[in-house]
Every structure is written in C-alpha cells, then in structure tokens.
Design a protein that fits this description.
The protein has 29 helices and 15 strands. The strands form 5 sheets. The chain has a 6-stranded mixed sheet, sandwiched between helices. Strands 11-15-14 form a 3-stranded antiparallel sheet. It starts with 5 loop residues before the first helix and ends with a helix. The relative contact order is 0.09.
Length: 756
C-alpha cells in the first residue's frame, strides 16, 4: 500500500472526519495561518477565472491571506485583490462560460511579453447549461471550446500551476425555477467531457493541467446545507481553498503536519554515514553468524561409519565476545532504524490527520484499565513506591499518554490538564528515585552517572542522527537528563550529605534542607528570568542540544512548565526516608501505613484533594492561565494519588503486572511513538493498512510495542559494553564517546553551512 502521488490524492480523493474536518486520502493537510500563507505567496500573482462558484473559491482563498476581506463588489465583474505588505496579487476574472472570450484571455498570457500568473484556477459550466436550457448543442459547443483552450492551458502549465475545477453537484430540490435545468446528470456530462479532453491533451505534453475534482466529493456531503442549492456552504468553500493552498505551498513551506505534496527530504551527510555504519554492522553480524554456523556443522553429532554409534564432540559453547554482541545489537538496531526511516521520512506509508472525539479517547482508557485490573499480582515487597508499584505507575501513565496522543485529545482542555499532571508525575519519580539512591547509597561515582545518562539518551541520539531531528525535539529526554544532573550536582557538591552521615549527627539534616532551599531559590530565579535562562543554554555547544527552530524558547517553556515537581519529588523522598528510619510508618503486608485514625483522615484529605484538582482542571477555560498555575498545584494530585495507593495495606501489597510490563519500557514507548505509531513527528497517524482504521491501529500498535521492547533490550546490552565498571576502561570509552560527539558537531556544522 504505497503512498503514491499525494498531490494527486489531495486533488481527487478524501473523506470527512466528523462534519467539517476533511481528510485527504493517504496524506495530511496543514491548516495555514495568515502569516504562513503570506510567506508562501510573497511576490505571487494568482488568477481565478470562471463563474459565481469560482468567485466563492476566490473569496475563501483571499481570506486565508486577509480574514478581514468582505464579499462585496460587482458580482458579475472582475474583482482585484492586493496585499501590498507581501506583494501578493489575486484577481477574479468574470468568465461564466467557456467560450471565445475566455480563450482570448488565456491566450494573452501565452504570448511572450506578457507576465504570466503563478497560479491559474479555471472552471465554468453551469451558466452554459442555464442559458441554453440544458440543450445537447450547448454541450457539443462546450467540448469544442475546451478542446481549443486545452493546448493553451498546457502551455501555461509549463511555467505556472494550472487547475481546472470540475463542477460541483447541485441540490436539485432547492434550485429556483430559473435554475431547474441545471441537473446533476448534465453536470456529470460536462465534467466527463472536460476530464477526457484535458487528459487527452496532457498525454501529448510534458506539462499537465491539474484537475481539481475533490470539490465534487466535498459538495456531495455538504450541498444539502446550501442556501440556494447551487452554491456551497462557507465551510466547504474554505476547505477547497485550504486544499488549494496545500497543493501549492506545502513544497515551499514544508510544514511538519502537511505531508501532502511534499517531496521526500534528501539524505544528509550524517544520515548517509549512519546508513553506512549500520550496513557494515549488518554485514559483520551476518559474517560472524555464518562462521558460527559453519563451525557448528563441523562439530555436530556424527555417526561412526563402522559401529554406527554417535560420537559427541567434546566442545564447550564459547562465550559471546564483546565484538559479537556489539555487531549483533547494531545489526538489530540498523533494521529497526530502517523501519523508522521508511515510516516517517520516506514517502512509502500513508499518513492521516488526528481527529478527536470523546469516544476515541475514553473507550480505550476504560479498556486498558479493565485489562490492568485483570492482571493483578502480589508485590515482592510492601514498601511505599516499591519497584513493582513505580513500574505499574509509569506503565498506566504511559498508556494513557499514548492514547491521548493518537486520539488528538490535546484539543480538549480538561484532558490536556490531566495529562500535564501525568508528565509531572514522571518528573516527580525522577526526583524521588535519584534522590533516594544517592541519599541511601552515597554512590556519586562516574559509573553510575554514565549508566543513567546512556540509558536515557542512547535511543534519542540515534534518532537525532537517523531522522535528522534536533535533540530538543524529543523534549522529555533532555528534561529528565538535565534534572538528573541537577539532582546529582545538588547532592554531590561539598558537603556531600548522605543518610549514613546524617544518622550520626542530626545537624546534617538541616544542611541537606539548606541545599534544597538553595536549589528551590535557583529554580524560582530562572523561572522568572527568561533572559538568564536563555543565556545559559545559548552557549555553544549547549545551544546545539537545546535549540529548536533557532532558539531555546521551547526548552525554556518545557522546563518552566514542571519546574517545581522534581524538587517536590526530592523533598517527598527525604521526608519518607526520615519517617521510615525512625519507624514512624508501618509497611508490613496488609498493614495500613499509619494508625487507623490517622490513615482514615489522610485518605479522606487525599480523596478530596484529588477530586478538587480534577474539578479545577475540568473547569479550565484558558490554557495559558492554567499552565501558569500548573507547576505549583500539580503536586497536590500526585501526592494524593501516592497516599491513596499506599495507605491501605492491601492496595499497597498488590500491583498490575500488565501495567508494570509497559512501565519497564515506558521511555522507549514515549520516544518510539514519534515516528512508528504516530506520523509526521507526532502530528498525524501512521497508516499501514488504509481503509481499515481499527485494524490499522492494532497492527501498527503491535509492531510499535515489539520494537520499543527490543530497543530496551538493545540499550541494556550496549550499556554493559559502553559503560563498564572498570574505571580505566570506562575512561577510554568516554574518550571514544567524546570523539563521536566531536565528529557529530563537525559534520553538523558542515551540513548547516551547505544548507545556508
């Protein structure tokens, strides 16, 4: 099911998602803003030629440039439009019939000295039907006139974009008496004649007049809403204008969510080098496999020709060498990255726009919750936020976030606000988990730091190379990476205060609290000083990591949105571990966390707090205002959930193995969805099986989850090789990694220079 010519699909086929959202077959349509339309059409001249229906399309088109334009002026005359700020000129020329006058106007543009329009949109027929009372002679004359015009249009198509708009159907029951002769049967006959003649002409010419037939499909769904049975309702006209804008502008503006009419991006130098590396890895892995297979054949069980007895060779299976594991891992990774590239960079598979409905979000949520409850098992330990419980928490949150992304639920503000809490909860766990490790174990060694950084960043670095995307594009990984380094720096800087030292002298607890207060002060200062924040992350080479679209604003926005929650996670871990050390909480199997009275009071407060936050989030009216409050209040629902999940002894003693399985690969799931489950860098949906949406989601989801699981295994295998425990070996590996990133920066600079 190849994507094929997406421009042709955009002009000829599609369907409605809901009532007003048009989905072209196989590709995604970008919704152009006024500024984007002006940038695309700067210094361009566009001409619309035809009848009142073309005039409607003309007005919808110029409203994309200037929404303030009003439909006024001589309805049966020429209408000029000019945007002087962008030097855009759009003209409507009143030629309601395909006749000699229209031919003469078109012919004037083919003559050498006259400036040709960049875009020409032509269409007419209903006036011919009306004036000649639907006679066959009029149709015959229409064919003759189009035959004479077609070569002129083909000549113009060599240097301009020329579109012939087919006639939309009418709603015959609503037509006035003077238009009753305009029937759908007559319209079909005129359209058929136009298509046959234009296609016949294009076969003899390299240039081609593009037939704009998609408006017929749109009209079939919406013409019954017409005011007079002939002219389309405004929403349908706007859709046609947006399609026209996508056909012309997508190849110029290259919007991420506008895959229609976009050529496949050329391979960069870094992508070519990555392709060579993975190819060599695959070849190397195959050679080693063949050698092992050949050795196995030589040493396999063989029958003694004289006695007929079997002899077993006394050969022990050799251990897999580091080189073999490396080649095998990169071989698998190379095949997986090929799939990534084919899904989201090559024009091989189809892509579609998201369309949100309440059922598309909430029904899958209910389904996975039922599955999660079904797979309930006992935990190995009953501590607060034990490993199984945190894996379960990550798992169900990740599944909810995935459903949120594929359903396009970000357009529904209450859902958006709750998803923001789930992202904050991930960062809360980052603060809680890393603080707990450093505080309890006191291990500030380089090995631990490198292991964490490698596991967090390996997949993203590979995708940056293969998919030609900046590091900041995968915003969550830079976020958790920077916060990990902040946590490490806070606790590792002198004086290093750990639990063992603090147990000897209680004053060290105050020293740690002082460190946390200093951290909170720095966070508060940076959150209200955008200039200082941007200066820090604009220094080279940090800027190469955190810039997106030429600035670090996106990074500042993402960091600021959840700026306090990691601190909250660290503080919660400190308080919990202090209470645990002093045996002020009961973590036995089936026991409530506190005394019955205290537990009941805390449970009541938690339920009320959880519900209050949900009510507030559901009543949000403005995303900007709610985002301002979110960093300070998100911790309320997170703490409420932790208490509800851990205070009752039975609830703390069980977990969902279904959710926990997904939790173990949650990072890979979050990153992989960008390219092999969603499409166009998360803006759309990948379509492997067109025409069967549910079956397509099942198949693409199965592949997506398997790939994420395999990448998790590859990352774990490579982490043991790239980050060894031996310090001298680790130092050599770090020098190699530094060399790799230096080369990456060098080739990236070369690419930037060639692009400019």
């Amino acid at each position: 099911f190849k994507g094929g010519d997406t421009c042709e699909y955009l002009l000829s086929s599609g369907r409605f998602l809901g009532e007003k959202v048009w989905q072209p077959h196989s590709c995604m349509m970008h919704k152009y803003k006024n500024s984007e339309a002006k940038n695309c059409l700067v210094d361009k001249h566009i001409v619309f030629i035809g009848d009142s229906r073309i005039r409607q399309l003309f007005y919808s088109f110029i409203k994309l440039i200037n929404p303030q334009v009003k439909e006024e002026g001589n309805k049966h005359g020429n209408i000029p439009f000019e945007d002087k700020s962008s030097s855009i000129k759009v003209d409507f020329l009143w030629y309601p019939e395909v006749n000699g006058s229209m031919r003469q106007r078109i012919k004037s543009w083919t003559e050498g000295s006259v400036a040709k329009p960049h875009i020409i949109v032509v269409g007419a027929a209903t006036w011919s039907i009306k004036i000649h009372n639907g006679s066959n002679e009029a149709l015959t004359q229409y064919k003759i006139n189009i035959t004479s015009i077609a070569p002129l249009l083909e000549k113009l198509a060599k240097s301009s974009d020329v579109y012939w708009v087919l006639q939309d159907p009418v709603y015959e029951d609503m037509l006035s008496e003077s238009r009753k002769m305009i029937t759908n049967e007559k319209i079909d006959a005129y359209n058929e004649a136009a298509v046959r003649i234009l296609n016949s002409s294009s076969r003899n010419s390299k240039a081609k007049v593009k037939v704009f037939s998609v408006s017929k499909l749109i009209a079939q769904e919406t013409i019954m809403k017409s005011a007079d049975g002939l002219h389309l309702p405004e929403s349908s006209r706007d859709t046609n204008a947006m399609i026209l804008m996508n056909v012309y502008c997508n190849k110029i503006m290259k919007p991420i969510d506008g895959s229609c009419c976009q050529p496949q991006p050329p391979l960069t130098l870094i992508q070519k080098l990555a392709f060579c590396f993975f190819t060599l890895s695959i070849i190397g892995s195959l050679i080693i496999s063949l050698i092992h297979r050949n050795n196995f054949r030589k040493n396999k069980l063989c029958a003694d020709l004289e006695s007929g007895e079997e002899k077993k060779p006394a050969i022990s299976t050799p251990n897999v060498s580091t080189l073999e594991m490396l080649l095998h891992s990169f071989c698998k990774l190379g095949l997986i990255m090929t799939y990534f590239y084919l899904c989201d960079r090559a024009n091989l598979f189809m892509k579609e726009n998201k369309f949100y409905t309440h059922s598309s979000f909430f029904i899958p949520i209910v389904y996975i919750l039922v599955l999660g409850v079904f797979y309930t098992e006992n935990t190995k330990e009953t501590k607060v936020l034990n490993r199984e419980q945190t894996d379960e928490w990550k798992g169900w949150m990740q599944l909810v976030i995935l459903i949120y992304h594929i359903s396009g639920a970000s357009t529904f503000l209450p859902v958006y606000m709750h998803i923001r809490v789930l992202v904050a909860a991930y960062l809360f766990q980052t603060g809680y988990g890393h603080f707990s490790y450093f505080w309890v174990k006191g291990d500030f060694g380089v090995y631990r730091v490198c292991q964490v950084l490698f596991r967090l960043n390996f997949l993203v670095v590979v995708l940056c190379v293969v998919m030609d995307r900046p590091y900041q594009f995968y915003y969550f990984v830079p976020l958790v990476t920077v916060w990990f380094m902040i946590i490490y720096a806070t606790l590792a800087i002198w004086p290093q205060i750990v639990q063992k030292k603090a147990n000897g002298n209680c004053l060290w607890h105050f020293g740690l609290l002082l460190k946390l207060i200093c951290l909170l002060t720095c966070i508060y200062f940076l959150s209200y000083s955008q200039g200082a924040f941007e200066k820090i992350f604009s220094f080279w080479p940090l800027s190469k990591c955190f810039e997106l679209n030429g600035n670090v604003y996106e990074w500042w926005f993402r960091w600021k949105l959840d700026r306090y929650v990691v601190f909250h996670g660290m503080l919660f871990a400190f308080i919990y571990l202090a209470l645990q050390k002093r045996q002020m909480i009961s973590e036995g199997k089936g026991d409530p966390l506190f005394s019955s009275r205290v537990s009941n009071v805390l449970l009541f407060i938690s339920v009320v707090s959880f519900s209050t936050y949900s009510i507030w989030a559901s009543s949000c009216k403005n995303k900007t205002e709610c985002n301002e409050l979110h960093p300070s209040v998100s911790v309320v629902q997170i703490l409420a959930f932790i208490l509800i999940r851990n205070i009752p002894g039975y609830v703390r003693s069980v977990y969902s193995s279904f959710f926990a399985w997904f939790g173990k690969i949650s990072l890979e799931l979050f990153i992989c969805q960008y390219h092999i489950w969603l499409a166009a860098d998360t803006k759309g949906i990948l379509v492997l099986i067109p025409g069967y949406p549910m079956f397509n989601v099942l198949v693409s989801t199965f592949i997506f989850v398997c790939v994420a699981h395999e990448i998790s295994q590859i990352t774990n295998d490579l982490a043991q090789i790239v980050v060894p425990k031996d310090n001298s070996t680790l130092l050599k590996r770090l020098l190699c990694i530094a060399g790799f990133f230096s080369g990456l920066l060098f080739f990236s600079a070369m690419q930037d220079q060639s692009r400019h």
